[in-house]
Design brief:
By secondary structure, this protein is mostly beta strands. The protein has helices at 57-68, 118-124, 161-173; strands at residues 31-41, 44-53, 74-80, 83-90, 93-101, 106-114, 136-144, 148-157, 178-185, 190-197, 200-209, 212-222. The two termini are 31 Å apart. Mean pLDDT is 89; it is low at 1-18.
């Protein structure tokens, strides 16, 4: 299922979120915040929440297991790097909960991802963000609300820091974007670039680790 398991320039079609998504219930004692209610992750529609509770890690795990297991076509629950991770396949949805024990509370990250057709996936990913030759896309998240569209990408590239920095600087300048700020520090292996065009703003940071340049790009556009 391609990147179905992996966790805004593109306007998300309302039909992507019009289906009956599975209802996620939370403990009455929990403090729950919506992280994203209309998001695309690598082209897949996704909703996410973060939850805090003073109950134990195993009690929270038992709550979600009881809620999801019988409804699942496939179900998995196990410890992973100190966190209790639950995956529930309820086609066309994948429900996940990553339950992390802090000193005095438990933090749970809950996500629901919807599988889509190859045609819809291609449509969702049709707006491509520029990247240097040979780059690897690590993460691509798009979201939108009433007031703004956002997109966050993480890339890695074997190109040099200076080459990567000038690639993006030149790319946006040639398309009429205005340079708001620019820092290139080859000695520290870091750089930052902010460009704007009307209500469209992009922030790009560069960080070098073991001869690989990691790029994080955040793009925001006010309005729809």
């Amino acid at each position: 299922m391609k990147k179905y398991w992996a966790l805004i320039l593109l306007l998300i079609s309302p039909s992507l979120f019009a289906d009956d998504w599975p209802e996620v219930e939370f403990p009455d004692t929990a403090d729950v915040q919506v992280v994203a209610d209309s998001m695309l992750y690598h082209g897949y529609p996704m909703k996410t929440w973060v939850m805090e509770d003073e109950q134990s890690q195993m009690m929270i795990a038992s709550f979600f297991k009881k809620q999801w297991e019988e409804k699942s076509e496939r179900f998995d629950a196990q410890m992973f790097n100190g966190d209790y991770v639950i995956n529930s396949m309820q086609p066309p949805f994948l429900l996940t909960a990553r339950i992390h024990q802090e000193y005095d509370r438990v933090i749970t990250y809950v996500g629901v991802t919807k599988n889509v057709t190859d045609r819809q996936l291609e449509k969702n990913n049709q707006v491509q963000f520029p990247k240097p030759n040979g780059s690897t896309l690590i993460s691509d998240i798009k979201s939108n609300d009433i007031f703004k569209q956002g997109r966050t990408l993480i890339l890695s590239t074997p190109s040099s820091l200076a080459s990567s920095y000038h690639f993006y600087r030149r790319h946006f300048q040639q398309r009429g974007w205005v340079e708001n700020s620019a820092i290139l520090d080859t000695q520290s292996g870091k750089a930052a670039l902010q460009m704007s065009q009307g209500s469209n703003l992009v922030d790009i940071s560069f960080n070098t680790k073991k001869s690989v340049v990691y790029i994080v790009a955040n793009q925001v556009k006010e309005g729809l």
